[in-house]
Please model this.
Amino acid sequence: MPVTPAAVALPPASGFVRRFCRNRTAMISLCILVLITLVAIFAPYLAPQDPARSSLRAIMKPPSLKYLLGSDDLGRDVLSRLIFASRLSLIASVQAVVIALGIGLPLGLISGYVGGWVDAIIMRFNDALMSFPALILAVVIVGMMGPSLTNAMTAIGLVYAPRVMRVVRGSTLSVRQEVYITSARATGCGDARIILRHVLPNVMGPLVVQSTVLMGQALLAEAGLSFLGLGVQPPEASWGSILGSAFPYMQRSPVPTIAAGLVISVTVLCFNLVGDGIRDSVGRMRRAGD
Amino acid sequence: MDQGIASAGSGGTLLEIRDLVVQYPSANGWLTVVDHVSISVGRNDIVCIVGESGSGKSVTVQAALGLVQPKGGRVRSGSVKFDGQELVGMSNRQLNRIRGDAIGFIFQEPMSSLNPAYTVGDQIAEVVRRHRGVSRQEAWKRAVAVMDRVHIASAASRANDYPHQFSGGMRQRVMIAMAIACDPRLLIADEPTTALDVTIQARILEVLEELQAESGMSVLFITHDLGVVAEIARSVVVMYGAQVVEAAPVEELFRNPRHPYTSGLLEAMPQVALDRGHAPVAIPGVVAQAHSWPKGCRFHPRCGYCQPEVCAAAPVPLIPDDHGYVRCSRAAELRSVLGKAATERTIPVMT
Model:
């Protein structure tokens, strides 16, 4: 599939970028997300202490200069653990979203473009999968495959695939009706080429929005599963597992619980706000462009 | 890539649509939206299909190129021969080799027939690359060259622009450039000027005429505007209610319309009517719908010359006459009346 360099994911970017930058909430959220990503990348340099080193003399200490966010029930520095956990949490979310995209995008494109009985069959599977509560289904899948972070995120990815699919199928259905698709066919484009060159770039907008929002949800789901002990396994830690292990001692030492909860909430919120920002910017461009 | 210039009037038929029947699904089964339509386009010829919206003119040509099937329609019967090759029943793979290469297609809405995600140069170059298999640079050069040919100013830099950066008229030029990028032998233009301002329309028609004269390609032009027909057509096919109702050379059609519908279309033309000192006369009633064709002649409920016992009785066949074809039971009797009406009738100006 030859793709020319000028082929961009989102239509004419300049207006989109300008509008997005003008959206203050979205910009601040994006900055926070970039910051969190940087923290995850440079975790070994930023963490004040070894996140795995426990000390019997520092069990559940309140915040101090040595332990900025206190220490946990095994005497480990909570701040360092949160910083290192950001890596796993982000990677896990990305993994889930990539799996959801990998399944949902092609199926959505095929379902929307081909239509007919192919669409009917795919959509019924989709409905069946959607009718389960996401987290419960993930718990079942993890239960079958055994608890590990990869299994948990595969499960979350599977559960979210129908949501990606719905968005892609919906956009494909409307793009398929566009004159430029018939026009492409009239210049001799085959179906595969029409889907990849002409439909895909035009469903990219809604897809990016959906993926961003799913990142937040996957992060939350990961936190939930790890909180329940179905995700990441000790000694590794994600934000959810830190929250889970700090929670029983919340009365004696509330700071770790609150810190972990806050990190999760803020990150999820930022993903959602960035998603909204992208949606608004893309939407306005579409309206102005036509 | 030089222009193969066909000698004028080299003769022979390039596109031959014969007894084409196209159907779309509906709640009550298949609906016939093109009913035994035959149209032929010679080499170096410009043929216009005229008719009101819903008369089946667009569907006819789209079906001929296999473009209605993906939208759920089907070709029930009939044949479409392009340069001796049968297109009906041809696989999509084979059709794709012809579409965009030997046959160029221009659509009605320049605003929506270009992909918003790519620059126009990319879109034209893509067509060239696929059909000619040339390098990327060469395809791009060709794209700029054809944009230049349709008189887009500073084509080399504009090729890098996205469709939304073009005005309607310019976008239609881009569409034309894309359609002629591979030197087609046949250009099908589906109401290419309908969505444009009158002044822009004239420019676009000029471009099309110029290209036709230079390259000798055949043009099949769909329009509902008889002014456009008068401007460029050599022969005309008039469609009403999914059928051809009249076919004739252009002068003949304007001077001597055989079908009351054609005559009605002429009377409804502001240019013609005002020239003769009366206001345009609209054809009464609305276009018949595919699910409820009137019995007999499909035009009879709106026809001023209708004699119910003759016109509503049985379907009317397409009858050959000295210049073309006409589908009217009373064509012979009406001949002098309609001819006279077309040249002499004056109606007091209503203001």
Observations:
- The longest helix of chain B spans residues 198-215.
